[in-house]
């Protein structure tokens, strides 16, 4: 399994004349197949995830994926790590899913004349064959999120990072998306407010005020987070 390593990685940003800490120096080795990240809005979850593929660079320490450093070899890291945003409309940049997947396939070495067929086959594998040439704005929320996932996975990344991927989905589409995720072979790191979804992981991190407040078994992490949310001081 891939090794995601945070070596005292922290993130600070300047707001006006002040330095604001988004994530305190954090050291983690993540090798599990499924890792979930939970915590309140603004706790630092998204910052943690964005460090993994270089969308955010650490201001202290380092982050690497299988020894590839996000700061010095960002392009190589992004070939290893795919990132799915909360809102698929922030990710799908082409008018149709077919065009978006074909754009992704340009990075894989597939010849231009073969990309359309490869993209159609890839989209069909996600149950979206009948929607490949439909405007992304005419797709349902669940279809959009699956299309965004299909586009990211077209490049066959080793690691898949998802930032609250089911937030905009209803129950039916959430369960459909969940089944698709459970069937993937990639190492997956995801943040979520859905505590049931968090339990699908092998390991769960609780992020609170820019620190890893808990790191362990999903059921224990969810229990810790519930107590933290209610009392502010888990037992």
UniProtKB/TrEMBL annotation:
Gene3D superfamilies given in the database record: P-loop containing nucleotide triphosphate hydrolases
EC number: 3.6.3.-
One GO cellular component, as annotated: ATP-binding cassette (ABC) transporter complex
InterPro entries per record: AAA+_ATPase (IPR003593), ABC_transporter-like_ATP-bd (IPR003439), ABC_transporter-like_CS (IPR017871), ABC_transpr_CbiO/EcfA_su (IPR015856), ECF_ABC_transporter_ATP-bd (IPR050095), P-loop_NTPase (IPR027417)
Single Gene Ontology MF annotation: ATPase-coupled transmembrane transporter activity
Pfam families: ABC_tran
Domain ABC transporter: residue ranges: 4-234
CDD domains documented for this protein: ABC_cobalt_CbiO_domain1
Keywords from the named record: ATP-binding, Hydrolase, Nucleotide-binding, Transport
Family listed: Belongs to the ABC transporter superfamily.
Protein name: Biotin transport system ATP-binding protein
Organism encoding this protein: Spelaeicoccus albus
